[in-house]
Structure formats: structure tokens, C-alpha cells
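Q: Convert this sequence to C-alpha cells.
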Amino acid sequence: MQKIIAYEMICNKAPVEEINIECVLFHKDYWKDYMQIYNECFYKMRKNLKIEPVNFYSDFSQMREKGANTFLYVENSEIIGAVSCYRNEIDDLIVRQSFQGKGIGKELLIWAMHHIKQNGYEDIILHVAACNKKAISLYEKAGFSIQKIERVR
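A:
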């Protein structure tokens, strides 16, 4: 079994950049689109790490509780990206594949950081797979640093 290493990253400073996007709270009408984007974003990593099921989401019941903490960046009724915020933790930052490489991930990260700070939290935490070099670079540029290395499997 292949080992999986994740980093816990923390940022304790205010985001320096302004918010340039608006996000809306997840709604069940977006479920199928969200499920497709989420599964596409994590498919390659889950397959390479032999994490089953490779397509994590398959039923709306999996999203019921998470939906209250998931925010969508939508243009013309199409989800461009999404991010979840649980108290002071950022999770599942995803961008539709056709929009990747255009700075949307950075915008979602900045939006989430502002959202968490506005809710009164000082430290912002996130977890990222050690093999996800692009995400790690994005997070470090935004002021996050690795605080802990965790073996997940």
C-alpha cells in the first residue's frame, strides 16, 4: 500500500489582497455540477494514491452536512470553483478544469481567508497532500507555512 503524506499548513496573518470574486452558499440545485467538478479535480490524485473510491462523490447524501460550509464561485449559472470553510479551516478548494491556470484558485483562497477572518479567527488552517506541489506553492505565496507533516496512510 502506497503511503500518503499530508501537510498541515497555517497562516496567521490577514490576507493582503482584496476579494475580486463573489461566492454563494452551496445549494442542492448545483449538486450534479459540483459532484462532477470535485471528482474530476481529485480523480488523478486519488487514482495515483490508490484511494477508493476514485470518484468520491456519487450521492447527494454525502453533501448534506458539508453544503452548509461550501461556497461556490458561479458565472452564468456554471460553477467555476468552490471552497469549503469549517470554522478556521479551508478544505476542498477546487476549480473546474477548463478554468485552471487562470488564477481562480488564488481568488478562491483569498475569498476563503477573508471569510474566515471576518468570522473572528486568527489562525487559518488547511491540509494538502504532499504530492500536490501546485497547491502547496499557491498556499505558501498566500502566507501559509507547513506546521506539521502527517502520515495519512
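The CA atoms of residues 16 and 142 lie 8 Å apart.
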